[in-house]
């Protein structure tokens, strides 16, 4: 099998580093850049355009492109009989995401969103503990991440992002919040632009009420200079608590092959040492497994659409839609 990575100059190289067991090709017009990537990652073919890749015999397309191109590129690939892996968010609107899912079903092809946080070992463990009643009945969930955005490129522009910080990096933490809390019934939120680096919002505080009666608070910032290291999540229940030990966290070294999101959980006061899997390799393996077996992907596109819908609900309540 062959997978074509579209967008291999930036974060696409994280995908290239995580791919194994299949032939790998890229789309790249610049010959010097193409040769550098080819030698580093063992790339088999270099296509000069997306259209050339669609005309090839490659079975899979991996889209690492700006958010506003997700729907267009994914639908084109699905209609040409390709399985599609697309970076989060699934799209910039719910309608676009629904169109992508409907097209995948019509084509009988796998559509999966590359949401690596979904595959994090700590997230899976905490979900199991919540279901098992280890902390009793969950009453409050806090999920947060604070940092300063210092990069350049298309993420500076609202038109390509479909928003700002929340729809990009923040959607990871929305996924974690919803995996812990379940369906929500109410959202209130406030978003603002503090640092003035990007066009969209860089700071959001959202409160969610869940169908099970618990509450959640999401805090996501791209405007925090010299932030403290704090637990990224806390789950408080009637009989205990679970929170992340951030000192055991390992993220940011994207090409190490040992990248995971959250540190070990502290369950009812006792740290649990977990054997962590690399989240990028886990998501790639899940995609390839679904393609080979002809099954739904472990990270169903409907879950990614759930995450997007929550982000857009937060935007609407915050008055930035």
TrEMBL record:
One of its GO terms (molecular function) is nucleotide binding. Residues 2-114 form the Gfo/Idh/MocA-like oxidoreductase N-terminal domain. SUPFAM superfamilies: Glyceraldehyde-3-phosphate dehydrogenase-like, C-terminal domain, NAD(P)-binding Rossmann-fold domains. Residues 124-242 form the GFO/IDH/MocA-like oxidoreductase domain. This is Oxidoreductase. InterPro entries: Gfo/Idh/MocA-like_OxRdtase_N (IPR000683), Gfo/Idh/MocA_oxidoreduct (IPR051317), GFO_IDH_MocA-like_dom (IPR055170), NAD(P)-bd_dom_sf (IPR036291). PANTHER family: CONSERVED EXPRESSED OXIDOREDUCTASE (EUROFUNG), OXIDOREDUCTASE. It comes from the Archaea.
